[in-house]
Amino acid sequence: MTMPTTSTAAPVAPANALTGKRRIAFASFVDENYLPGFLTLLRSLALSNPNVCEDFLVLHDGLRPDSVARIRALHPRVDFRQVDAGHYDTYAKGDQDNYLVRKAYFILDVFRVRDYDTVITLDTDMVVLDDLGELLRLRDGLAAVPQFFYGQHKLNSGLLVIQREYLTDAFCAELDRVGRAGSYELDKHDQGILNAVLDGDFVQLDARFNFVKRRLSGDLPVPDGTAILHFTGRHKPWQGGESGYGEAEARWHARNLSEAAFHAAYLAAGGAKHHDLLVHYGTAHVRRTADVDSARKVAAAHIAAGEYQEAVDLLAPLRIPVDESWPHEVLGHALMSVSRYEEARAELHLAASVPNRAAPAYGRLAQIAWIHGDDEEAARLALQGLSVDPTHRANRLMHLRTTGPTPPAEGPASGQLAHVAFYMEHQGNAGDKLLPESVRLAFGQDTGPERWHSVHAHRLFDEAALERVNARRGLVIGGGGLFIPDTAPNGNSGWQWNVSDELLGRIDVPVLVYAVGFNAFDGQAYGHGRKQFLSSLRKLVETSAFFGLRNHGSIDKVRDLLPPELHHKVRYQPCPTTVTRQLADGWRDPAERENTILVNAAYDRAGLRFGHDYGHFLGEMATAVTALGEQAEVKCVAHALEDERIAFDLRREHGISLPVIPMYDFDNDAIRDVYARTKLVIGMRGHAGMIPFGCGTPIISLISHPKMAYFLADIERPEWGISVHDRHLGARLTERATALLADHAASVADVHGRQQELWKVTEANAADLRVILGR
């Protein structure tokens, strides 16, 4: 069989269009008779794969409301899609009422799905017994288990892994043509039409992914490693079963649990758990039992997803025993994240009284003290945490932050600008470290305390801070991706600056929002904090004399959150790091460049970045690094400590050794110098693209976040970006990097030309800013 051609119909734009992240769904055909089997299938999937929660498409030709409710109770991401079996009348052979025939036609409806990249079908008479990660990682073709009894050229029914190239109008048309011609077999062993079309051309999976019951006749045990057990045949376990298959049917009955027993079993299962499943099952379990330890687990999942108020709402009403330190710590964390600081202190002091949770509790207490401007108390609490655990990183960094050298004296307030920013400490993210200075360079060459009054965005903006700001000439806010819900959670604004609407409205000097980005990942939401964020955002725009965002993607996102009458105030201001050559005093392009290629990968929020594709990404990077190593020395450049992981993983998994440049340890001049002297930067972090670009160095972006695509669109070079999910990432990265290196002078000139366009925008905005500030 030849590969199916791509549909000529206009495609529906997927939600993941910018990042290329694969959308995966499971799918089953469900009717009332097979509903008991499907409910047990859902339970078995969650218990055997507790960290997997993809969308589940339920195709049906009519389900009762109570059946729909029972299904929803077992899966938080169900999509019900009703099908019309009547449109198969022309080749149904008068047997539409037979479930097996209707199920065979369900396959035809699965191929009509257009909003997913991978669809995995599961029959309702299956139970999942083991990890399905191998199926979720498949990227090519149409995969199935060959039939065990009837030859390897046919696939077995029930389990299919279908990739996007088969989810097309052209392939559906071929299925329909064969169906109408009637040149196929359709029986209980056979997918009929599909087998006739494929004629053996499919990716063959191991039998453990569709292990048919008939192989266990005589009460044979289920082999170890069986991932999916399929109860083929007429007699189903929920209908009384069939003699001779006791060992197999015991596996089904072990998963046919009551709601309470299922929830308890899921919570008790070991290993990582998916946020959506843990919240879905755990919340119901906690409401039923008021179990504190279960509530702690669910609240921690809420916190990890930035759902801080949800964590408070779940855990706060419960009576937590005084000596249960861990739940007190989690509740304290949630309370401080919604700015209920006094309540948080009480919970954290209770947690700190027990040695095994004392270090993180003291770390959070120290953070609360620092947020309120009490460096002395923060240092004392951090030291207490270190006395319990000398290796505790958060306490060590807080102690360094609050006991470091005294900041130099500032100049007269009347000649200064106040500057709200995220001021990164030593060993922090290199991009965030460079940003405040880069913003200040856009206002003049003096970036020090003579002209600037620093306001750390994460510290509480109180009456004293307001008085200090109003004594200055103006207030600059930026740069960086400050619009994100979880980097520095607070209940006052819902974004990184910890400021209330009331105090924001009382700032009476010009407010200049400069090159801020909307940094939420795909799949990341503001939860219950959205209302406060929208209020704060609107107040900020109303208050601002200048509101500049660093890419047009952020502009579109923010305008969507504002009333129409404020849209005109949102304007484009590129990140100042992208025009470094224009801003830095006395900048000189390097006379010669080192023959190096610098590679950066990011690992914060890895699940949102990679999904199930990290192994694929790493393998493709190994291919590219090996090929590019023949043209230049490839090095890993780490903006943050965790960025070194790519070097470790490439060595462990592929035997490739990369030197590591610890840029998190560099000062700003050293960061710019390294990026100016290399030939090419391949980066995943936003500023692993923008900083080298600003230094005049060619870049290729590894896109795992929309902001990378936003920037490349702004400079009209989308071809400089490749999704980390790209099926041919290694080959395409090698090809594009080779092209940029082949005529390096032309590549550098192209960067300079693109940068000049950003500089024109920056200069035009600078003229407006001078008018606003009166000079």
UniProtKB/TrEMBL annotation:
Name the Gene Ontology molecular function terms of this record: glycosyltransferase activity
Report keywords, A-Z: Transferase
Q: Which residue numbers delimit the Polysaccharide pyruvyl transferase domain?
A: 472-703
Tagged with keyword Transferase: yes
Q: What is this protein called?
A: Polysaccharide pyruvyl transferase family protein
